[in-house]
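S1.2 Input.
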Amino acid sequence: MKLKKGKSIALFILAIAFIVGCGLLATYGVGKEHKGKASHITLGLDLKGGVSVTYHIKDKKFTNEQFNDTIYKLEQRVYIYSTEAEVYKEGEDNITVDIPGQFDAQTILEELGKPGSLMFVTVAEDGYTGDDTYTAKDGTVYKVWVDGSDIDDAQGKAVSDDENRKQSYVVSLTFTKEGAVKFEEATRENLNKQISILYDDQIISSPTVKSVITGGEAVIEGQESMEAANNLASTIRIGSLSLELEEISSKVVSAKLGNDAVKTSLTAGLIGLLIVMLFMICVYRVPGLVASIALTLYTIFELLVLNAFNLTLTLPGIAGIILSIGMAVDANVIIYARIKEELATGKAVDSAILVGFKKATSAIVDGNITTLIAVFVLYALGSGPVKGFAITLGIGIVLSLFTAMIVSRGLVYLFYSMGFKDKKFYGVQKERRVVNFVKRKALFFSISILCIIVSAVIMLVHYSKNEGLFNYSIEFNGGTATTVEFGKAYTIDEFNDQIKPEIAKVIGSNDIQGQKETNSNRFVIKTQLLDDTKRAALKELLVSKYGAVLENENADLEETNISSSVSNKTRRDAVVSVIIATICMLIYIWFRFRNIKFATAAVIALLHDVLIVIGFYAISRISVGTTFIACMLTIVGYSINATIVIFDRIREKLANTSSKNIDLQDVVNRSITDTLTRSIYTSFTTFVTIFVLFLLGVAAIKEFALPIMVGIIAGGYSSVFVTGSLWYIMSKKAYKTKEQ
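S1.3 Output.
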């Protein structure tokens, strides 16, 4: 703040030039390939589509355990392309793999590898017979030491030789517990001999055993290049499937949310961000302008990071970005509200800025670290959409902390040094009338309990009518894949724009996905399970209006049942990771506030918000799919952050009082009142962003935005009307206090 005015103006111009430069980089990129361009961000199946490959199980007999194990292992294989890839059952003996952002099915098949049988073998001695032998198509008899089911993982790696300063390429193998025992025996029996890797009756590698290998880890040396190491590792991984597969078809997958989803979402996001910026400037004046600049930089950085790390962006990912934008706004609101409070005490502007940032730090840091703890747990234990949400939210939190605590602070000081030293540029907090929230706690608790009970009753009514507790989507409940051959060659875009809306009218649901088979006029249309009436109506629409080809007029459309693409493991991972994340957040709050009652009240409020949103899903019958997981995760992150701000203020007031003979009820009421403006402003700015998305978005986007808006309202309600009173009830015995 001691900078001269001229130097401050120069630094401000330099800062704006930097932001504009970053914006141009995100808009246009660099070089002929336009590296860094925001439009190059990889989009998921729900936003852009991708490629779909269907495999048939060659084994005549197999168990459900083998089938599920194969699906799980395939999921691990395709995650090299994206954590948002989907693997699910189609019919009785087919498995379909959907990979976002990829549209060249042939390249995928080559890179992923052709699933087949994999064995580690040696040529059997003449006359040797046993259960561990295998006769290849050329008549060679092999002794099988290890097969694909014994392999846990295989990865290509580059290894440096410190003595010779040379780099070599190897394949690192990890065996299962049983496989480790088998491989140890194999290496002991074949020391200084070769063990061949037989894949689909072809020898793909014959490494020499140099020592007895124990511990379940081994290395195949002598690979020509990193590409060769990766190819061999990929072949070993795909060959370790429990069942042998063969590829039977490949299709281009349309975006689940339609082609307009990205465009409308970007437009809505821009409008929402502009409204938030305008609001911040009107309320906080110069600091509001600073917040707007910081938010602009945050948005640009978010796009650049997504591009730099080649992350796949899906609807859950967008949810993570929206939540982190809300937290970025929240951080600025907390800071500038504190500055206004300090100005109201008579402090000079420079002192108010310094103290305002200092006092806001604890609430901001605690709120963001609590959410980051959840991010780490969700990323470590989650899969698919859960992991995608965690990645974007984690990046967003780090960037929002940087822009709010570093960029905003620097810009506020620059504006002050440039001559904006009058209090009128920052606003002065008017004296607040303390609202007695605690006195009305019975009413507020009753409203919450009533909403939860009504939701539970409605859920049971639907269940009693065999309608299910929720309206599960194809992703969660499976459905029907209808194969149609049209008389003309429709494109994916034409299907989305022309045919899909008409199908939605006929079947009464927007939960539809189209897949176009490669080099064909055939489409696979995925819907929820249809009754006979809707099935007949769909057939009539496709035949009469769009020229679907049938063998004869009485023939039915080709249909196959499909399982949920959100696997049981993904659902289980989501639930387990949220529970563990909640426990970790509880422990952190307990540690930071040194009071288990704070943590308990926060978790009860979190549970309240989740139950309210779940009840809304049950009442509205909005389809429950991947977006449901994203919505629940968003509410968890939002709820905790809002609650911590109030608790931070209670902690501060208690710290300033040495005696236990205090009016605890007044402390709670004043803390909620002091942070009420922040609660309203943050809820409003986050709500506006989602509301614009709801207004402009396609049908599926609306189904995503509406529950989040309910969650924002529930989170704001619980933070203001529930958490403080809960903590007061649990804590009043520890203080000499009186009821009012």
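S1.4 Remarks. The chain has six domains: 9-37, 48-108, 118-240, 258-425, 438-456+567-734, 479-562.
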